[in-house]
Each structure stands twice: as structure tokens, then as C-alpha cells.
Amino acid sequence: MLRLFRIDSPRKRETTHLEIAHAGAGYRVALKRVTGARRFTLRVRSATRDVVLTMPVRGSLASAREFVERHAAWIGARLDRLPRPVPFEPGETIPLRGVDHRIVHAPGLRGNVWAEHRLTTEAQSWRALCVACEAPHVGRRVTDFLRREARADLEAAVKRHTAAIGVAARRVTVRDTVSRWGSCSATGALNFSWRLILAPPFVLDYLAAHEVAHLSHLNHSPKFWALARKLSPDTDRAEAWLKAHGASLHRFGSSD
Fold first, then answer.
1. Which of 83, 144, 131 has the alpha carbon at shortest distance from 105?
2. Domain enclosing residue 26, as ranges
3. Distance between CA 68 and CA 75 in Å, rounded?
């Protein structure tokens, strides 16, 4: 008799993380099996503050655990050296367009979020990011404000650069990306990290120019770089800034 239906046996759930302990601390290590990998490689990612073990596709979990446990002290040391996370809370200082602002809770005032200069008793000025809402909502209000500011600055920069070379972007979106600061799709859609609003303006402008250049050259050819540098004379300076400081932008607030 022919079998009309096949009953598949449940697949064994693949292990994606290892939990290890060392010197009273616990660490969660993500496993990343990579075709072509011949050895185990550990990496602590500063942007996401996590640990990844790259391993051969056929590597055993027992070998992976032994390798991670052997390097547990190294993992702990690297994590301890990461900059302190800075939540969007009153009293904390965060950069806005590269300039430090102290978050000030202003529940008795009308409005949403705004930046202003303030003076100390010694007549020294400092910048405040004022947030008018109930205390539990301060973090979300600050995040929403930064997203709006990032979108406004990026849309203005994209408009300026596209007009300069006679191209058009299909749309501009702003997200909390980790692996890249910006991207350009084959259909002309541009995507950026809202965290660029934390960096100095020349960095945000360079990223806008970089992705606009991709509208003409969807690659990193010499022609692409020539156009990117034409649109943004600060290309090398911005690249250097991102290499030195970019990862630290992810310590502010929380990931989406």
C-alpha cells in the first residue's frame, strides 16, 4: 500500500549559544558556523556588547565549549574594557551632533524634547537636552527625538547630494543598524543608522554622500570613490573618525 503522507521526524534543535562561567561571572557566547572556517575564533563585539565564536561547520559542541572555557578569562577582560553603557536617563551626558548634552528632566514644562544652553554659577555654559514628560518615558522620548533629528539631517544631506549629481533616492529610512552605518539597495532605497546624529555633522554628511554615490555606482570601484570624495571632501577624515569612535556610539541608549 502506498503511503500518502510522510511523517517527518522532528529535527534536532541546533545549539546557537553556549553558557559558561568563570570567576563568578557568566557569559553567553553565540555560535556562528562558517563554511570554510578551519579553526575556532572568538570575537567580542563592542557595538552589541556580546561574544561570538566562529567555528567550522562540522566542529563539535564539545570542542567549542572546551575552547571557550579555555579563553574565559580573555572574554571577561575584553568585556570589562568596553565603555560603560549610557542609558537615556536624567543626569547622563550624551553627544548630539558631536557636542555633549546633559539630559535634564523637566516635567513641569510644556513641550517634548529640546536642546538649550545653560549657565552655571561660575558663568560657564553647558548644553542641556530637556525632556518634558513623566519620568518612566524619558528614555523613549530621547530616542524618538534623536531619530527625528537624524531623519531630518539625513534627508537634507541626501537631497543636497542627489541634486549635485542629478540622481534621485527612492526613499530614505532610519533604523538602529549594527553591522553598517548606511546602505543602498539596488532599487535606490537608502538606509541609515539614527546613531549618526550623535556624531559630528561632517560624519553624517559623509555617510549621506557615500550612499548617494552608490546610486550611480553600486560598488566600491575607483569611480565610486572618486564620486564620494567629490561629494564629501571630508571622506578620509570621516572614515578615520568612524574607525576610532564609531563603535562607541552604540553604548548610548538601548538597541531597538
1. 131
2. 17-80
3. 9
28: in domain = yes
Q: What is the enclosing helix (H) or strand (E) of 164? A: helix 138-165
Question: 55, 32 in Cβ contact below 8 A?
Answer: yes
Sequence-separated (6 or more) residues with CB below 8 Å from residue 1 = none
| pLDDT tens digits, one per residue of 204-230 | 999 999 999 999 999 999 999 999 999
Residues 112 and 231 both lie in one domain: yes
Checking if the pLDDT of 24 tops 80, the result is yes
**Using CA atoms, how far apart are residues 201 and 204, in angstroms rounded to an integer?**
5
pTM over 0.85: no
CB 204 within 8 A of CB 157: yes
- Contact at 8 Å (CB) between 190 and 212? yes
Domain count, the chain: 2
Are residues 76 and 99 both part of a single domain?
no
| pLDDT tens, position by position, 77-106 | 998 888 889 999 999 999 999 999 999 999
